[in-house]
Amino acid sequence: MAPTTIKNIVIIAGSLLVGGLAATGINAYFVTSPAGHLPEESPTTEAKVLFWYDPMYPNTKFDKPGKSPFMDMDLVPKYADEDGDGDGTQAKAGIKIDPTMTQNLGLRTEQVTYGQLNYALTIPANLSFNEYQYAIVQSRSEGFIEKVYPLTIGDKVKKGTPLIELTIPEWVEAQSEYLLLAETGASPLQIKGILERLRLSGMSEDEISQLRKTRKAQTRFVIKAPMDGVITAFDLRSGMNISKDKVVAQIQGINPIWINASIPESASYLLKDSTQFSIGVPAYPQETFKVLKWDILPSVDPITRTLQVRLAVDNAKERLKPGMNAVMTLNSQSEPMLLIPSQAVIDAGDEQRVITLNEQGRFVPKLIKIFHESKQQTGLISGLEEGETVVTSGLFLIDSEANISGALDRMRQQQTATEIDHSQHVAPSTAQPDPHAGH
């Protein structure tokens, strides 16, 4: 081979060697240089799909996309990092839902407040005579009925209304004795004794006053009504003999009239000093009636398990009649407690929960313990704090997402751990703290 040819081959090989070394050095420089000198574009990676599901039946999972066998809709993918922060790490508590989806749901929220539940219980009632205004009329001495005034059961009478006239021999005899003592100058003690005997035998004060004033013995006596009311017993006739224990008449009052109602034993907590009652009577739908006082009878009906409540209602116009039907509405308030809208509660039978919205915009399911529900408000024993935000609409989809993502299982585990830790640090006799300390 010619020297010139060999020389050219050596030059070419040297050039290739130098070029290779230079390329290797440059490549190493850029690979090991600090970030920012020549940034590289990270390859785009798609989130891993764990399974597909129908939001209406979240507990059924499918291994490929398609149409739901339950509803006329496409299956929705569940991604591996839906509960993450986007960098593969576990998210904070709760779940994140696409804002577009929550907007389409018409999502609404309200805050947990502190106040009182307002109760209203409407129950049937009935009107009856006022048993405090009750009189049994008797002569208290044997006699003969001379006249019966035209009265019968159901008639209203006023105090002093004549009922019957009768002759009572005992009274005639006692009057004669009194007049004899008075004319013969008997001692005041003797006269007082005979007048007292007349009183004890049933003679009225008016008749005794007339005797002392006129100094004449009366032979016929009038038995009068001692009070206003309605006659509920009256069966005497003229010419009858009457014994001293015979009932002349029975009279019962109707002003105030009584209204009686049976309240379920389970609602007895509504009866307190601040409880208000209102009365409605179907016969007078446009009228209201004033409740003067009310009482709870001391025993519970063992058959119906109800408390008996009795109201005294003003009946000055006497329009309310014993035996009428009425409707009693009881209005009461609970003690102050935490309140949420009732539509925010998800009742699973063995547990109740709500979906809260935290400051990071994540939906967090929480278990709650309910006290009572009334008028679309639910009172809580525990589970939330005043000022927290609860979801009141669009709950179904959010609750489905929480079930799918496992947020509910984590919530239950955390609550169980908290209860165990609390039981280890708090004595059994320690009272539960006020959920609204400081108010």
Automatic annotation (TrEMBL):
One Gene Ontology CC term in the entry: outer membrane-bounded periplasmic space
Which Pfam families does UniProt cross-reference here?
3HB_CusB, Beta-barrel_RND_2, BSH_CusB, HMBD, RND-MFP_C
The protein's UniProt keywords, in alphabetical order, are:
Ion transport, Signal, Transport
Domain Heavy metal binding, residue spans: 51-78
Domain of life of the organism encoding this protein: Bacteria
- Residue ranges annotated for the CusB-like three alpha-helical bundle domain, each copy included: 170-219
Q: Which GO terms describe its biological process?
A: copper ion export; plasma membrane copper ion transport
Quote one Gene Ontology molecular function term: transition metal ion binding
Family per record:
Belongs to the membrane fusion protein (MFP) (TC 8.A.1) family.
This chain belongs to the protein called Efflux RND transporter periplasmic adaptor subunit
Q: Which organism is it from?
A: Budvicia aquatica
The organism's taxonomic lineage, starting at the top = Bacteria, Pseudomonadati, Pseudomonadota, Gammaproteobacteria, Enterobacterales
